[in-house]
Design brief:
The structure holds 2 protein chains of 2 kinds. In chain A, 45% of the residues lie in helices and 22% in strands. Classes of the chains: A alpha/beta, B alpha/beta.
């Protein structure tokens, strides 16, 4: 288990248009030796189904244009419904108002990463590795 | 590969035929050279000589090396009339109008935030009262992606980052009591398909108000690069079909709405997504060339097709290079139109543009610093000779702007215009050895990247194969690494960081259920009262037009007249063209 490559699904919600953050984080995780399945846009349902098919350890959502609370909730609910919430790490990054951060965490996201120095490569990669290991244990 | 000559080859051949009259006489250049060598050897410190040429690293930068000092030696063969000229005259390096800002100040076109159509109407009236001279219609995500407010995909996103528009009635509400025959309106349609859907709604709104289409002034984006490369989407159509819709729109608007700018070649969003300014300009020019070629194939001439091509650029941190790049792209577009296409009408050789200051260079850390950054970006845009300007707001990394955060950005433009006096003199930096050398270098590099695209078989091909997507993705990752390593310096983020900063007031635009509910109710009412048989027929005709190569916009106008919705028209396009996915995605 320890040497298994971490597999991450990177996506953004349905109508999102901005893809810069998606590429940045996908690149970071690949540089760290993880396998990244980059699918671009998907509805929360499609994202969860793809995560199951691809048997990933992590789902990373990039957001920019709003809708993170409404669609984030659908995603988390769907993950619970399909029984993967406890074993898959679900994280979100991008542009959202600071007031949304505690709400997203409360909703069930394992971490949220706003832009800037607070979301460094080291922090994101360490979070993914540690949390995947913790969930596997 | 095609035997057609590349633009670079054509321009090189045409310039060889010209007799050049260098500005500096050879004797002066000889003296300067001697003096320069002596000075460099005798007075310049060894460490400065060793680092004579340095590579600047900036966000969205081109990494053009910069020398410690510039002299006539860097522009020794410059020909004033051929390379610089007078404003409003060929080669338009100094600007497209003779008097530039003495004649007309740059249009101040703030990009307003979000809300319902009624709130947008109110905000436009507020902006006009504040002195805005042009309006921009920023759309919410559902509208950008061509989904109706009542489709499930739209949930949570209606009215968040812009205004929702589903049908003609929304246009009527947004522009109620606004003199659309006097004020220019930029509809940020993004995509060709969305242009084919939304502009007709605007036209039908004007028609219902009794305003003839030849009175309407404004612009649409209508750039297939936006749809196929820059924007993530849940539904794409193949790039070749998308390019065709772009050209159908141009042809229709050119004929029916003569004062309307039918395409805004959008370097802005591509650059912000992740390229250098050079690449963003090369791609825009490549698209411009493909468009003119297509219009010629359709039986129009280059002057007819080039009349109202507009450009949209992002202006970032490398102050002088940004200015030089605007001068360079003006000269290059002129050369393309004149020497590649034989244009004769000055108007079709003009590179007219709107500039928005860069959003991606702004930070979440210490957001008030963004006012300062955006002011420098705006200053360079005006020094470069833009026609229209939007200065970004300081809350860029948090939310779409509110009225409160819009104010400093409107004021920045007004301070540039009314206080700095930089608008008094046309192209004030011309003749600077540095600016002219940089203008030449930027032009050369754009032409070089254009050559790469043309050798690949043209821009549509470069998109279809995923080449441009990959180029963007790797640029972003490399750039991000340089920000992490502080090779690209960002104040407040990776240098000069404050330990703890209190945030200034930020009012994030949040989703309000009531906006979506009202939109849904309106759609239900419209679908009830319109002639649904007629709608169905119009939509079927649109599918047929797509498949048989007829101009799609004349059919989307009919759809709008019948009160068809945006989502209905989107589905007609998808039905006709099928779907596509950029090769970069699994």
């Amino acid at each position: 288990m320890a040497n298994k490559k971490i597999k991450v699904l990177m996506a953004q919600f349905s109508l999102e248009t901005h893809t810069r953050g998606l590429f940045v984080v996908a690149g970071m995780l690949r540089d760290e030796g993880m396998e990244v399945v980059l699918i671009g846009n998907g509805t929360p349902e499609q994202i969860i189904e793809t995560a199951i098919q691809e048997d990933v350890d992590v789902i990373g959502i990039s957001t920019y244009c709003g809708g993170e609370l409404v669609l984030g909730k659908v995603l988390i609910d769907k993950a619970k419904e399909r029984g993967i919430k406890d074993r898959i790490v679900i994280m979100m990054g991008g542009i959202f108002p600071p007031v949304d951060e505690p709400q997203l965490l409360k909703m069930g996201f394992d971490a949220v990463f706003p832009p800037g120095a607070v979301s460094s490569r080291e922090k994101i990669c360490k979070f993914v590795k540690d949390t995947v290991a913790a969930k596997a244990a | 590969m095609s035997k057609e000559k590349t633009t670079k080859q054509i321009l090189e051949e045409s310039s060889k035929k010209k007799k050049r009259t260098p500005l500096y006489n050879p004797e002066a250049i000889k003296d300067i050279k001697n003096g320069f060598d002596k000075w460099k050897k005798g007075m310049v410190r060894p460490q400065d000589n060793a680092n004579w040429s340095m590579t600047p690293y900036t966000i969205m930068g081109s990494e053009i090396d910069k020398n410690m000092i510039y002299t006539p030696l860097d522009v020794e063969d410059i020909d004033y009339i051929e390379d610089i000229g007078f404003s409003g005259d060929e080669p338009y390096t100094r600007g497209v109008h003779t008097n530039m800002y003495r004649g007309k100040s740059f249009t101040m076109r703030p990009l307003p935030g979000a809300g319902s159509p009624t709130e947008m109407n109110k905000r436009y009236k507020f902006l006009i009262d504040q002195g805005a001279t042009g309006l921009a219609v920023a759309l919410d995500l559902a509208t950008v992606q061509m989904f109706d407010s009542d489709e499930p995909e739209s949930n949570g996103q209606v009215g968040v980052v812009g205004v929702p528009i589903d049908c003609v009635e929304d246009m009527e509400v947004i522009f109620k009591d606004i003199p659309i025959d006097k004020i220019s309106v930029s509809i940020v349609t993004h995509f060709p398909r969305n242009t084919a859907i939304l502009l007709p709604m605007y036209l039908v709104m004007a028609e219902r108000r009794g305003i003839p289409w030849d009175k309407l002034i404004g612009s649409v984006q209508n750039d297939f690069i936006m749809e196929s490369v820059v924007r993530g989407a849940c539904e794409y159509i193949p790039p070749r079909d998308d390019f065709r819709v772009q050209c159908d729109n141009i042809e229709y608007i050119r004929k029916e709405v003569p004062k309307w700018n039918y395409i805004t070649l959008n370097g802005y969003n591509l650059r912000e997504e992740g390229t250098s300014g050079i690449t963003s300009m090369a791609v825009a020019i490549a698209n411009g060339i493909e468009i003119i070629k297509d219009m010629i194939k359709r039986g129009h001439d280059a002057d007819w097709a080039g009349q109202r091509v507009a450009f949209f650029w992002s202006f970032g941190n490398d102050f002088f290079e940004e200015i030089a790049s605007l001068r360079a792209i003006r000269r290059l577009w002129y050369k393309v139109m004149k020497y590649r296409f034989g244009a004769k009408d000055p108007r079709s050789m003009w590179m007219r543009c709107h500039i928005q200051t860069s959003g991606i260079t702004l930070t979440r850390e210490e957001p008030l610093n963004n006012i300062i950054r955006a002011a420098f970006h705006g200053l360079s845009a005006v020094l470069g000779g833009t026609q229209s300007l939007h200065v970004d707001t300081y809350d860029e990394a948090f939310s779409v702007p509110s009225e409160r955060t819009l104010m400093p950005s409107v004021r920045t433009q007004q301070i540039i215009e009314a206080e700095t006096q930089i608008t008094q003199v046309v192209d004030p930096l011309a003749g600077s050895f540095y600016i002219e050398a940089l203008t030449n270098e930027v032009e050369k590099r754009i032409l070089g990247e254009l050559e790469d695209i043309e050798k690949m078989g043209g821009l549509v091909e470069a998109v279809d194969t995923g080449w441009l997507h990959s180029k963007v993705a790797s640029y972003i990752q490399r750039e991000h690494r340089m920000i992490e390593d502080a090779k690209i310096k960002v104040v407040g983020r990776n240098i000069y960081q404050a330990a703890d900063m209190e945030l200034p007031p930020i009012e994030p635009s949040i989703f309000r259920e009531s906006v979506q509910r009202d939109m849904k109710e309106k759609l239900a009412r419209i679908r009830q009262k319109r002639d649904n048989k007629k709608v169905e027929k119009c939509l079927n005709d649109l599918v047929d037009a797509c498949k048989t190569g007829k101009n799609v916009m004349q059919y989307t106008v009919e759809c709008a007249r019948a009160d068809a919705t945006e989502g209905e028209m989107r589905r007609a396009f998808t039905k006709a063209f099928g779907s596509w996915k950029p090769p970069i995605y699994a």
